[in-house]
Amino acid sequence: MAEKYEEEVKGMKPYVAIMGSTNSANIVVICGSRREPSRVRALMGYVGEVLESKNLEYENIDLGSIELPVFRSQDQNEWDEVTRETVKKYLDADIYFIGSPVYFLGISGALKNLIDHTPWQEFKEKKRVAGIVMSGRNRQHNLISDSQLRPIFVYLGVEVANTSVFAIEPDFGGEGFDLESPEVKNRIEEMVQETIGLSERMERNDK
Ligand SMILES: Cc1cc2nc3c(=O)[nH]c(=O)nc-3n(C[C@H](O)[C@H](O)[C@H](O)COP(=O)(O)O)c2cc1C
Q1: Could you report the per-residue pLDDT of 12-51, keeping only the tens digit for each?
Q2: Phi, psi for residue 89 in degrees, rounded to 5
Q3: Which of 104, 133, 154, 174 has an alpha carbon within 20 to 30 A of 35's alpha carbon?
Q4: In testing the pocket of ligand 1, which one of 38, 63, 102, 184 has its CB within 8 Å of the most ligand atoms?
Q5: In ligand 1, which atom is closest to the CA atom of 140?
Q6: What is the pTM of this model?
Q7: Where are the domains positioned within the chain?
Q8: 178 three-class SS
Q9: What distance in Å separates the CA atoms of residue 21 and residue 32, rounded to the nearest whole number?
Q10: Looking at ligand 1, which residue's alpha carbon is closest to its atom 22?
């Protein structure tokens, strides 16, 4: 069975094979909240579940458990080990799922700090795609996704999925941090599907 599958995969040459954890694209799921508990972490956890259900491997960059120093220099020789490892994981990715809370009408400082480490000229040389997830208290502040997070990644040459996800506090149950809303879960599934589809299309167009 495994052999048959490998043959099929070889024949198809998919960019992201959807069985047997053989995706050739590096996928990174970023949680831009440092709070614990965190609604964004719950959302990104569900993104991870959806990827797993498609047998896609991914890595997490959870900025809540990484002590990333505030950006000071583009000279990587000046970076500590944590910065080097985190930024390498971030730069090696082809597909991003990026999550941030809305903090004072903007993205979190933690996420902005990671992005500030982007060597933007070389970053633009590789084709990448992204899907966006945000959480806020005020439904109207979903505009922050399109006015702040999307333009940053578009500027960096990343193709961002049209479907983005925005969740507000009533979408969560338990103590207020367990994702319960079926609509938000559906939206995450759509967003993941669209992002993976974009990546596959991009790869096909390259051939
Ligand atoms: C410092 C701070 C600023 C916030 N500013 C906003 C805001 O401008 N608009 C909004 O809709 N929610 C705002 N919120 C609410 C958070 O976005 C919301 O609770 C979100 O779900 C938090 O995600 P987290 O639990 O992952 O940190 C703010 C929360 C904090 C702690």
Answers
A1: 333 444 445 547 899 999 999 999 999 999 999 999 999 9
A2: -60, -40
A3: 154
A4: 102
A5: 11
A6: 0.91
A7: 14-206
A8: strand
A9: 26
A10: 101
